[in-house]
Amino acid sequence: MKKVLMGNHAISIGATLSRVQVIAAYPITPQTQVVEKLSEIVANGELDAEFIKVESEHSAMAASIGAAAAGARAFTATSAQGLLLMHEVLHWASRARLPIVMANINRALAPGWTIWTDQNDSLSQRDTGWIQLYASDNQEVLDSLIIAYKVAEQLSLPVMVILDAFVLSHTYEPVEVPEQSEVDKFLPPFNPEWKLDVNNPHAFGGLTAPNIYMEFQYNHHNAMLKAKELINKEGEAFGKIFGRTYGNIDKYKTDDADYILLTSGTLARTSNIVVDSYREKGIKLGNLRVRTFRPFPTEEIYDALKKAKKVFVVDRNLSYGHSGIFFEETKASLYNSDLDIPIFGFVTGLGGRDVTPELITEIVEHGIKSEKPENDVIWMGVQK
Amino acid sequence: MFKPGKKINFNSAKDLPPTPASVGDMTHNFTGSWRNLRPIIDYEKCIDCMICWKFCPEPAIFIEKERPKIDYYFCKGCGICVTECPVKCIAFEEEGK
Ligand code: SF4
Ligand code: SF4
User: Is residue A336 part of a domain?
Assistant: First the structure.
């Protein structure tokens, strides 16, 4: 059934369709409606789940960890400062290999106090061992939640589904809401082999001496690498049932492109418009949207970029003192390959500043006319 | 005296469960080897109050036939029982003597 949904409600409905059993969440702008809607759904008896009201985001993740360890499908959602407060337990969730799914609404960090979008909150969690998927529309937000559980539970890895504050969270778009029966066919109930069980007691997360600690990290890393295949595989399986296919990357007119924009989140949709306008002028521009940031789809990015002359990475985030983070990762992952083309790193749209087609056009113009990037950070739209 | 848990053997990363579970089962970790001083109960003087049983943090004191009994596989020799015993009937002796 088609509905007009804000991104936040697309999350709540995606979680409901995934039949989550425990929801532990703390409201924060711009995520609040996710929690409001879910509490309503649970209160109305439309979803058989425990709704745990917690006193902080740290507790929200801690409760999700307990739930998942006991074998329940757990869900939470947060944003910005809330995600930062979770940091310690994010590591716990992934190292305990608990397939929790969380939605994070990308909101810039304070100070200056802000509620608008950029990606520094989730990208600061890069090394927590979570899978990170960046969505670019509300349909994808809903679908990604369902796929996320399917991937998470097969690999015992937690997944963060990430979307832009306001640009998606509060923007209404038509969204096809899948039938529950179809979702049930795609996503079986969660039944982990290892869980807290009074009839088969185990100690979880206990002292892990140097003789085995590293083997757990080795396994965790390999599970992450496996996720690259599985995200594509389950994204295709989802497409067979629902008609919408997802993968680690999303190529828009890149196959014959001389110049390729590399984007994520909603910036990708704006960039597609710019690609079309360049194509009308006969200039071969393409747009590569990176949907999976962790694990980083190095091989697929290489394949998509290998015939291009120049790459323009657009980052709505910044690692102070170095560069935009997608730029940093792209460049580093291609360094040992045979690809020797200029990769430009543009930083723009921080703190929710609008990234318009005009601004993306400026980026493309700058890239086309420069032989090489003059700097690791090329600021765009800043009033210097 | 101790009841060992299920021992999980592993030779490589392949044998490990995804989550660090039970691998560090403490029933297989005989912490008694850490002990420098050995608490020894004088059962003649002991009044079976079980205060030592309550205070032992390991717990390495068990109740057997209504009497306290120290499990030397796990007793680390912290001396809490020695201090807490109301009739001072637990003596501390150097190990290896
Ligand atoms: S010395 Fe410490 S560990 Fe040993 S029995 Fe006494 S209280 Fe327990
Ligand atoms: S505390 Fe002392 S008296 Fe009481 S049971 Fe233990 S050894 Fe005996």
Answer: yes
The CATH number for B75's domain is 3.30.70.20
Residue-wise pLDDT for A48-64, tens only, equals 999 999 999 999 999 99
In the listed set A242, A274, A291, which residue is the last one of a domain according to the structure?
Answer: A242
- Of the partner residues B16, B22, B29, the one whose CB lies closest to the CB of residue A202: B22
Do residue A206 and residue B16 have CB atoms under 8 angstroms apart?
no
Q: What is the pLDDT of residue A235?
A: 98
Residue count of chain A: 384
Partner B contacted by A97 (CB < 8 A): yes
| Closest ligand 2 atom, residue B51 Cα | 1
CA-only gyration radius of chain B, Å: 17
Distance B53 CA to ligand 2 centre (A): 8
| Cα A136 from Cα A339, distance rounded (Å) | 28
Q: How far is A73 from chain B (nearest CA, A)?
A: 16
* CATH number assigned to the domain comprising residue A133: 3.40.50.970
Tokens 């796929």 sit on residue:
A147
- Contact yes or no for B37/B79 (Cβ under 8 A): yes
**What average pLDDT is seen over chain A?**
97
Question: Which of left, alpha, beta for B62 (phi over 0: left; psi -120 to 50: alpha)?
Answer: beta
Task: Give the closest ligand to the alpha carbon of residue B76.
Answer: 1
Note down the domain range covering A295.
250-379
Residues 6+ apart with CB under 8 A from A208: A216, B20, B23, B24
- CATH number for A339: 3.40.50.920
The boundaries of the domain holding residue B72 are 27-94
What is the distance in A from the centroid of ligand 1 to the CA of B87?
Answer: 16
Task: Quote the CA–CA distance of A304 and A257 in Å, as a whole number.
Answer: 10
- Please give the backbone phi and psi of residue B53, each rounded to the nearest 5 degrees, phi first: -60, -40
Among residues A211, A242, A273, the one where a domain terminates is A242
Instruction: Tell whether B17 lies on the interface with A, counting CB pairs under 8 A.
Output: yes
Same domain, residue pair A274 and A372: yes
Q: What is the ipTM of this complex?
A: 0.77
Q: What's the token pair of residue A376?
A: 């690791």
What is the count of structural domains for chain B?
1
Asked whether the beta carbons of residue A206 and residue B18 sit closer than 8 angstroms, the reply is no
Asked if the structure places residue A88 within a domain, the reply is: yes
How confident is the model over A76-128, as pLDDT tens digits? 999 999 999 999 999 999 999 999 999 999 999 999 999 999 999 999 999 99
Is B20 in a helix, a strand, or coil?
coil
Rounded to whole angstroms, how far apart are CA atoms B76 and B56?
10
| B4 at interface of A, judged by CB pairs closer than 8 A | no
